[in-house]
Structures are given as structure tokens and as C-alpha cells.
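Quick one, T. Sequence first:
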Amino acid sequence: MIIAVDGPLASGKGTIARALAARFGLPHLDTGTLYRGVAVAMLEAGIPPEDAAAAEAAARGLDAAAIDEAKIRTAGAGSAASVVSAHPGVRAALLELQRNFAHQPGGAVLDGRDIGTVIAPDADVKLFVTASEEARAWRRHAELTSRGEQWRYDDILGQLRQRDARDAARADAPMICAEDAIALDTTEMTIDEAIRSAIKIAETRSACASG
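C-alpha cells:
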């Protein structure tokens, strides 16, 4: 079974995807780590993320196993990742890796922004997880603060809006809800409520597919 979980930053898609992977005993890939890994490589080399050719080269040379989780979770890495992910060459370089992961024997759970539309349009279960801008900004603010980063809420909100606009407007694999995806708004949900809702959707969809 392939489960695709898409949605914008801080919507809860990563937490939901991990819970679904645990529930169904499937491997999980947060595809955003790949783009963040490329972004960090660019930043550490002193190359602006807007350099499409350099970004593609970094993507083709990316060692997914060597990605440093601490480095890729900063706000700066997130912003740069949104820029590099808009380069068609970067997306092409990482496409096969993601598709191979999705279509491994037994299936997998992947979360990102184009899983249900580009990476695994044949996924058995598709979720598009979202929440209000304000709720997502507060969640992101809390996440960064817990890691010791100091950010003003208004700055986080502005950055989040820029990322949403960039992800939705890019020409190659924009962030959109697949026509056959189930939308899950987590604005007013606790983490446990969101997970329970997602599992119920996945169980219902998988039962329909097997029946």
C-alpha cells in the first residue's frame, strides 16, 4: 500500500505520515529532507539557492544517508529548500529516488508537496493536510523556539506565506491537492485527533481498495 501525504509547512503532515507508517508497518520518507539537504549543501558552500545549475549538481550528488537532521531543520534551511525545490533540474534529480522508495515491495508512506500528483499518482491513499496560516505559524514558531532559535511570530508568518506562494506557483510540480485526495484540516485538532482522523481515512480507503 502506498500512502501519499501532502500539504504545506507546519500543517501536521509529517507527524501524520510517521503515525500512518507505524500503524500500517510501512517505511516512511519525508521528502522535504531531500530538498533541505540540497539547500544546506548550497548554503555551506556559500552558493545562493537561486543558482539553478549549482542546485541541480548538489541534488545529483546528494547522499541521503548523510543528511544532518539538526542542520536541515533550521528556518534558514527551510527557506532555502523552498527556493531550490522550485528548480526543475533539482526535482528531476530527486524524482527517481522518491518514486523508487514509494514503489518498493509492500509500499510506503511519503510526505511532501507533490506526492499524490507527481511522485505517486497511483497511491492507494492520498491525504492533503492543511491548517490556517496563523495556526501553522504558531506551530512553526514553537518548533523553532524549542530548538533554541529566536524568531518573531510575525516574521515566521511572513516567511510561511512566502513559502506557500512559491510552492503553489512554481511551474514544475506545484503544491496542489490531488483530485482524488482527502483534505484534512488540522487547524482545530490536537495532534492525537489529527492522527486518529488520518488513520480512519487510510483504513477506510484501503478497505475499499481491497474490497
